[in-house]
Amino acid sequence: MWILISPSFIKYFTPKNVSGISIFPFIILEKREIKHDKSFINHELIHIYQQMELFFIFFILIYYLEFLFLLIKYRNFQKAYHNISFEREAYANESNYNYLKTRKWYSFTKYW
Question: What is the pTM of this model?
Fold first, then answer.
């Protein structure tokens, strides 16, 4: 995993108010300071593990299909985003810095 700082990538390729994104094997951040936010980096590392399990392409496919389903269900962008199973797992465990040492494969499925 490599951490890259690219304000331009974040600005042009992500929704508004996004500070970073994981695209295996990279974590791309908007600002250098975010690199020192342990919870934020742990959140993105959880996504890296999810992407490795699903060979990235299936992660993307499931992520966006689930988001679209939830967007139709809730008719609210933020609520749909926060209820994606991948995000629910990452948010629930971002402050547990030992989580990735004990995480079982496909743990995101318990958030479906």
Answer: 0.95
